[in-house]
Design goal:
The chain is α/β, with parallel strands linked by helices. It has 7 helices and 6 strands.
Length: 149
């Protein structure tokens, strides 16, 4: 089982060598990492939209091997449905894509590592880890951690 699920934006930062990846790279080192099938779909669509060449797409495929990929099965579909319906009941719409990204973390009760915590803050019982606010990191020397119950 993975130690955490990594959101698309963090995977993208790591792939591109973006400076926003630095604190995530350190945090994720030595951990067993998972991504949702939705993250794979988003990254592949970005490659097509931006007309990446074969070499860059091959490099993406190689980088994705670092992660176990959680594909939709019945339990993940049930988790997604619960996340989406709970958001609707609370008047906080959660996009289908964000629901699929959060579902493996929510289902396995492991943290979701994201740089867009606002996309997931309405999901009850989802652990969120984010270095989105660098002031939190500088002041506290640790990431934002939300243990929603």
């Amino acid at each position: 089982m993975a130690d955490c699920v990594v959101d698309t934006n963090v995977v993208s930062y790591l792939f591109r060598g973006d400076t926003r990846a630095d604190p995530y790279r350190e945090f994720l080192a030595g951990k067993r990492l998972a991504i949702s099938f939705m993250t794979v779909a988003e990254l592949r669509s970005w490659a097509l939209i931006r007309n990446w060449g074969a070499q860059r797409r091959t490099r993406l495929d190689w980088e994705l091997r670092r992660f176990s990929i959680r594909y939709a099965d019945d339990s993940l579909c049930e988790a997604w449905a619960t996340i989406i319906s709970n958001g609707d009941r609370m008047g906080r719409q959660i996009t289908a894509a964000d629901g699929w990204i959060a579902a493996p973390a929510w289902l396995d009760n492991i943290p979701l590592v994201t740089h867009n915590r606002r996309h997931f803050k309405a999901i009850n019982e989802l652990q969120i880890i984010s270095f989105e606010n660098r002031l939190d990191l500088i002041r506290n020397h640790r990431p934002f951690v939300s243990l929603r119950t």
